[in-house]
Amino acid sequence: MKESHTEGARVYAELRGIARAAEMQELARGTGAEAVISDLSLEFIFGKVWGRSGLDRKQRSLVTIAVLITLRQTAELQNHFRIGLTNGLTHAEIEEAIVQTAPYAGFPAAWIAARALKNVERDGKEDVGENSAGLTQAGI
Fold this sequence. Notes:
This protein has seven helices and no strands. The protein has about 140 residues and is mostly helical. The longest helix has 17 residues, at about 35-50.
């Protein structure tokens, strides 16, 4: 396994939790497009991009949230609201990011994001990542 893949699995576990990281690694070991996308996600997105030192994770979350609002990627946006909370963003900061995107991405995109945040609030934070304790036991 490449070093960036291992690093990506570690970062993913910190952001989404050990169980989700194990699921992602299992998908990456499979076959077909889903396996390739999972592998690339672990290696590139989480190993090489999220693992960089230029921005802290809270800043990376804000950038990612803004881009996903602009692209109207609601399901992934909900994931990244949870990741942002794990990375130390407050609910108020996420709301402010939504408001900030409205004049640039459009009010419909901001409206969709506001509703997505409500869904995350309603569902609770059960899906947020865990701290790094226990990653070694999980083989990550």
